[in-house]
Every structure is written in structure tokens, then in C-alpha cells.
Amino acid sequence: MDRAEPVKPDQQEQWDSQFSRSDAFFGEQPSEFARVSLELFRQNGVRSLLEVGCGQGRDTVLFAGQALAVTALDYSEAAVAAVRKKAADAGLLALIHPHSHDVREALPFADEQFDACYSHMLLCMELSNAEIAFVLREMHRVLKPGGLALYSVRSNFDRHYRAGTHWGEDIYEIGGFAVQFFTAEKIRRLSRGYELLQVNRMEEGSLPRDLFCVTMRKGAAPQTWDLPPCNEDTSCDPLNRCKGSPEPPPGRT
């Protein structure tokens, strides 16, 4: 007999459930990635920001508190409700505009509308490589010329890489949640249409999670958005300087 396929938990239901049970599933304080990103936004005069996968708004409130107008998207209704409440409590309703949206669908915004796009650990969820490429293509569309795109994802240096139940590509189910892990080569392949400015590594949380933090600038749209062939080599960094693995975060052995 053929072995039955494992039942995959519905990810939207999983996130709605978690966000409904906890007001601060990822903590109350802004992420370190958001703090670093905020400084870059200041240096580049960013005023309008699209946050893709805002969760419960811990980073959203940080950005709006520094006078950035933030349009915050998440497909979890519970998350969007939490962001609305935090915006009201912080007196930031004029600057925070939360919306429910599934990023596998086109962004509901006009071309060249935002100074920057920001996404903290959304692209490493239950999204295929083709769907991630679509999200980045949509970000490119809504960014103003020369706009910034910043995102963080779980890296192949993470202790949970290739752990859990394999769902295909580099997606693994860990504790009921799907995680898509990134290599340096994957980041490079997905940067089509952008100038890849910087890729750093960062640790977050008590696990800890090992993250790639990616900074890109919008460039000219390519003739084709098709992903280039995969030439996976984890010894190469995404900026095409094949000189060994990226340096570990400070203090890590």
C-alpha cells in the first residue's frame, strides 16, 4: 500500500490561533532587524513604508513612532486586529494603516507608491520559490524608483534547517508551522530586478533563529522575471564573492 501523505496544518488557521491566544507571540519589543532597518530608512529619507507580514505590529509601532507612514499587511485577521488596537493605544492611527491580505495575490496598490518595503520573516513561511519571487516582483512594482526592499528569512545555518517534516523545496514543518529556509544562492537568484546591497546574518529569539537580513534597492525591471537556473553553492555569498561562508554573528562560536 502507498503511504498516506501527512496532513499539513492549515497555516492561516495556525497563525490566527496563535495570535488569538497571545497578544505578543514574538514578544513586546521591536525586532533587532527593525531597529537596524529604521536607521537605514532614516539615512535614505524614507517616509512611506509597506510592511509585508506585520504580525501583531511590534515593528509597525516602532516605525510609525518615528513618523513613518506604515501600510501593514498580514493574512491573519487576528494579527490585523492586534495592529489596529496597538495603533489606537499608541495614538498612531493616522500613521498605521493595517490591511488583511494574502501576499500570494497581487498587492492592492498603485505602481511606485512606497519609499520602502519591509518584511521580517514572512518570506520564509509556507511560500514556494515561485511565490516568493512573485512577492518580490510585486514589491518592485509598488516601490518608487530607487526604493529600498529589506527582508529577513531563516538561513541554512539555522539549527532547524532540514529538521521536521519535509514539504518540498526547502520547506519543513516544525511545531505545526511551515518554514522555508534560504541559502545565499537562493537570495541571489531572487534578487532579479534589484541591486543587492547587503546580506548580513543575525540571531533572534531564544531558539535562536539564524537569519539572513537582506537589503536591496529597486533597479530596472528585467526583460523576464523567470528565476535563473539554480547553481547551489553554499560556499558562495549572495553578492557573488565566493570566498567562504558568511561570517557568523558576533559572539557566536
UniProtKB/TrEMBL annotation:
<dbReference type="InterPro" id="IPR029063">
    <property type="entry name" value="SAM-dependent_MTases_sf"/>
</dbReference>
<dbReference type="InterPro" id="IPR041698">
    <property type="entry name" value="Methyltransf_25"/>
</dbReference>
<protein>
    <submittedName>
        <fullName>Methyltransferase type 11</fullName>
    </submittedName>
</protein>
<dbReference type="GO" id="GO:0008168">
    <property type="term" value="F:methyltransferase activity"/>
</dbReference>
<keyword id="KW-0808">Transferase</keyword>
<keyword id="KW-0489">Methyltransferase</keyword>
<dbReference type="GO" id="GO:0032259">
    <property type="term" value="P:methylation"/>
</dbReference>
<dbReference type="InterPro" id="IPR054706">
    <property type="entry name" value="MT_CxxU_and_UXX"/>
</dbReference>
<dbReference type="InterPro" id="IPR050508">
    <property type="entry name" value="Methyltransf_Superfamily"/>
</dbReference>
<feature type="domain" description="Methyltransferase">
    <location>
        <begin position="50"/>
        <end position="147"/>
    </location>
</feature>
<dbReference type="Pfam" id="PF13649">
    <property type="entry name" value="Methyltransf_25"/>
</dbReference>
